[in-house]
Specification:
Chain B: Its main location: membrane. Chain B: One of its GO terms (cellular component) is plasma membrane. Chain B: This is Sugar ABC transporter permease. Chain B: It is found in: Cell membrane. The complex is a heterodimer of chains A (about 525) and B (about 350). Chain A is an alpha/beta fold. Chain A has 16 helices and 23 strands. In chain A, the strands form 5 sheets. In chain A, strands 13, 16, 19, 20, 21, 22 and 23 form a 7-stranded mixed sheet that branches. In chain A, strand 19, helix 14 and strand 20 form a beta-alpha-beta unit. Chain B is an all-alpha fold and about 350 residues long. Helix content of chain B is about 70%, strand content about 5%. Chain B is built from 13 helices and 2 strands, in the order E-H-H-H-H-H-H-H-H-H-H-H-H-H-E. The chains are: A alpha/beta (about 525), B mainly alpha (about 350). Chains A and B meet through helix 2, helix 10, helix 11 and strand 18 of A and helix 8 and helix 9 of B.
Chain lengths: ~525, ~350
């Protein structure tokens, strides 16, 4: 692990030496070391739960290590709180932004700064920063009107105004279109060119290999390796992250498609102003046996689409949603489940499952209308328990205790439970929103394989995902959602990342989505 | 240096169960301090308050009679509170039920009406309470108004309505101008359980309610949907349970049980309508519901505990010349102690280093 970076200066700006952090019985970081040098882009790689967030929180003063030390320019230092880290030039852009929707960009930035700078001069400084680093941000726009990518740029600008020596970006590209990601990479290059250090947290291996000079890999809270990602293959990095070969779901075995199971005809949903786009004239047909993926950047109407499909929001025209030949637009969730449809929302805790109820009680959420478990309104606990055990066994759901609260499960295990709950109902249509969001690689592969098998058995599967790689990997056809509109689904073999990326950014001119086959740069 | 409440994971059931007991002990300590401050021997005061009533068969019966409305109302409130709907107006629903039920008693007064009168009165009482309870439910569903405020304000509307009736149209013409109705006929009165003493048929009603509510809350889909709606509203909508229906449902149940308690009390121990028909049962039942962990059997126990504060308060009024407000102080302290204990069991107080707005 010796210094071998050729573009970076050998002195570490910030170095973590054998940091350990425990939460009760869990060792979140176990003697983890990391050194970030001036002028380099350093990747922090690891699966969910590998300890990346804990490490970052210790680097920026949000958490205190139980043992080990931080070195700043080679000298030991303590960051008792985030303010002291900021004072030393450590800036962080978190995945979840801390911006007030009702205020303008400049007001939001002013809130985070000490002193009382007039807004006009601050806006001038923002403009300087914007032109210098190519961050398109308008100081006097209301944050509520900005896209996710723009909000991220506001956060970056806010950090840069503090003239940081180290900029930490927490999963920055997970909310960006491919285009926006490219422009972020250019900004990062400009920053490191000035001698700043960037810590880039990601699990997207391709971009890490392109962008970063060095990479520190964590797994299970432990330091695994420090490597030069440019010298490694994506598969090699994945092996380091996961500790084993990542299983791939079987590719589509060609089989005959059956009846249409979901038919959307001119589906329109009015926007409610506060929460993202409305839906405009959506047409879609999914037949038995196929997986259709919907790509798109978050906040382009995916939530509205899911709620319209699940029956949480009823639509005006009942004929615009047809499930298994039955007009379903006016039916509630229970009635749609009775048509043998299954739904898996994006949010596991609070939407797919009640966090403070036991796992077995959570089985009831989607099965209470199926007849066996609830009869004459009385819950038959023995049948409920046996169904619960089938999910746990069949889907390898792991947890402590006999029947814990849903809150106690890890993201991957809870997702396996939620998927299993639908699959075991033997549906003819499954709609899944973000099937593997925040799920570890092994569980993600298992979930994709399960959905693949369900499709092979003749189920129609609709997958809404922001993870384009995932869709390219296991969907049969892909459509793109942008500003509440949906493109015509195209077979995966006949499209490319570039075409999809363009459509995600809103370029919906005819044909843009129909790029020639074989241009896909999807490497793995 | 600001303080922050942090949710604690993995709370042992023992700690959860112990919380109400700790709250009781804290209440007693506060009470002891209060007695000393008032110049009384706390040991003697506690003996009169809490020990002596338990030794006398007549007061034991009185204890059960006082616990009866608390139990009925408290179980209804448990439906609301489990669904995260904060019905604070049970006192008003109690009065509304008493008034509607009494209407039949007064309308049939002096006629040859048969034994159907009392059951019909009980039914009307439940309907009256339910209708009164549905008002805040409607306002919440339709306009999004806080049910806490509307249900509470409707208490006073109901109380003044009753006041008007017993001073006006329903006043007993032979009552020497006292603000009260005629005494109900026998067919309109709750039967006594053993033909004598204090225990009346309402006690049976309350115990049946415990059994039914335990079953509904613990074993049926209705109970599950109430619990789910309160615990995770979005998950409840996803599961297909209509939030509005749950809101109307729990307010109707809660109002009906409060109204039933009201008519049972008027047709039972009181026997006529008068301006004051409750020593604050509707409010005390809130404490009973919380102390009883929103579980019908728990509320059965907590109703008896709270009934004891009423009985002890009456005894202390007589033998120690303590004002009845002392009872209110006890009950209020108990509620605050329960709420505080609940928070401290589920959360941990942490000092936040520095002021950060990340």
């Amino acid at each position: 692990m010796a210094a071998d970076g050729e573009t970076a200066s050998p002195v570490a700006v910030l170095e973590a030496v054998a940091l350990t952090k425990r939460f009760g019985a869990l060792v979140a970081n176990d003697h983890v070391s990391l050194s970030i040098r001036a002028g380099e882009t350093h990747a922090l790689l690891g699966e969910n739960g590998a300890g990346k967030s804990t490490l970052v929180k210790m680097l920026c003063g949000l958490l205190q290590p139980d043992s080990g030390e931080l070195l700043y320019d080679g000298a030991p230092i303590l960051f008792p709180d985030p303010a002291s880290a900021r004072a030393k030039g450590i800036g962080v852009v978190f995945q979840h932004f801390a911006l007030f929707d009702a205020m303008t960009v400049v007001e939001n930035v002013a809130l985070g700064l000490p002193g009382h700078e007039p807004l006009a001069t601050l806006a001038g400084r923002i403009d300087d920063c914007v032109s210098r680093y190519g961050l398109a941000v308008e100081p006097f726009r209301r944050v509520g009107d900005l896209s996710v990518g723009e909000r991220q740029r506001v956060e970056i600008v806010r950090c840069l105004l503090g003239d940081p020596r180290v900029l930490i970006l927490d999963e920055p590209t997970s909310v960006l279109t491919p285009d926006e990601s490219e422009s972020l990479f250019r900004t990062v290059d400009l920053l490191t060119g000035e001698g700043r250090a960037v810590l880039f947290i990601s699990h997207k291996l391709d971009e890490v290999r392109r962008l970063c000079h060095r990479a520190t890999v964590l797994r299970g809270g432990k330091f695994i390796a420090e490597v030069d990602p440019r010298q490694e293959s994506s598969a090699g990095l994945a092996r380091l992250m996961v500790g084993a070969e990542v299983p791939r779901p079987p590719r589509l075995i060609r089989h005959e498609l059956g009846e249409p199971r979901l038919l959307l005809r001119h589906l329109n949903v009015a926007g409610d102003g506060s929460r993202g786009s409305a839906l405009h004239d959506i047409d879609l047909e999914i037949r038995a046996g196929e997986i259709v993926g919907i790509a798109g950047v978050a906040g382009n109407g995916q939530t509205a689409l899911f709620e319209a499909l699940s029956g949480e929001k009823l639509v005006d025209d009942p004929e615009s949603i047809v499930i298994d030949k039955m007009p379903a637009g006016g039916l509630g969730p229970t009635e749609r489940r009775a048509l043998r449809a299954g739904f898996v929302p994006e949010e596991r805790l609070g939407h797919a499952a009640a966090p403070d109820m036991t796992l077995s009680d959570n089985v009831l959420l989607t099965t209470h209308g199926d007849g066996a478990i609830v009869k004459y309104d009385v819950i038959r606990h023995s049948i409920l328990k046996s169904f619960f055990r089938r999910i746990v066994k069949g889907f390898d759901v792991r947890f402590g205790g006999k029947d814990p609260k849903a809150r106690r499960l890890s993201g991957g295990n809870l997702q396996k439970f939620v998927i299993g709950r639908e699959v075991l109902r033997d549906p003819v249509l499954i709609v899944v929103d973000q099937p593997t969001w925040g799920v570890d690689a092994a569980a993600a592969a298992f979930i994709r394989t399960t959905l693949r098998e369900k499709a092979a058995e003749g189920c129609a599967v609709l997958v809404i995902s922001q993870d384009l790689d995932e869709l390219l990997e296991f969907a049969d056809r892909i459509a793109v959602m942008s500003e509440g509109r949906l493109t015509t689904p195209v077979p995966v073999a006949e499209t490319s990342r570039e075409a999809i990326g363009l459509a995600m950014g809103g370029a919906q001119t005819n044909g843009a989505h129909h790029a020639p086959a074989g241009e896909g740069s999807h490497a793995a | 240096m600001p303080l922050r409440l942090e949710r604690q994971e993995n709370i042992s059931t023992l700690r959860l169960a112990a919380a109400p007991l700790v709250a009781l002990v804290v209440t007693l300590i506060v009470g002891a301090v209060m007695f000393v401050a008032l110049g009384h021997d706390p040991v003697r005061a506690f003996t009169i308050y809490f020990i002596e009533p338990l030794g006398d068969p007549w007061t034991l019966q009185e204890l059960v009679v006082k616990a009866c409305p608390l139990l009925l109302i408290g179980i209804g409130l448990a439906f609301c509170y489990r669904a995260n709907r904060w019905n604070i107006g049970a006192e008003g629903q109690y009065v509304a039920g008493a008034v509607l039920g009494s209407w039949l008693a007064l309308a049939t007064h002096g006629t040859e009406a048969g034994p159907w009168v009392l059951p019909a009165m009980l039914l009307l009482g439940a309907i009256g309470g339910a209708l009164w309870g549905l008002i805040p439910a409607f306002l919440r569903v339709r306009f999004g108004s806080s049910e806490i405020l509307t249900s509470l304000m409707l208490v006073y509307v109901a109380q003044y309505g009753l006041d008007y009736l017993v001073r006006g149209p329903w006043k007993d013409p032979q009552g020497f101008n006292f603000p009260q109705s005629v005494t109900f006929d026998d067919v309109a009165l709750m039967p006594l359980l053993f033909g004598e003493g204090r225990l009346h048929g309402g006690v049976i009603l309350a115990l049946v309610t415990v059994v039914v509510a335990t079953f509904v809350l613990g074993r049926t889909l209705i109970g599950f949907s109430i619990e789910l709606g309160g615990s995770a509203p979005r998950a409840a909508a996803f599961a297909g349970f209509d939030e509005k229906r749950v809101t109307y449902g729990v307010f109707a149940v809660s109002g009906a049980l409060a109204g039933l308690a009201g008519i049972v009390e008027v047709a039972g121990p009181i026997g006529q309508l008068q301006p004051t028909i409750s020593p604050g049962y509707g409010f005390t039942a809130i404490i009973a519901a919380m102390l009883g962990r929103l579980h019908p059997v728990g509320i059965l126990v907590s109703s008896l505990v709270l009934a004891l504060t009423y009985i002890g308060g009456e005894a202390a009024q007589i033998s120690m010349r303590l004002p009845f407000d002392v009872t209110r102080v006890f009950q209020g302290t108990l509620l605050i102690a329960i709420l505080a204990a609940d928070v401290l069991v589920r959360y941990r107080i942490r000092r936040v280093e520095g002021a950060s707005h990340a």
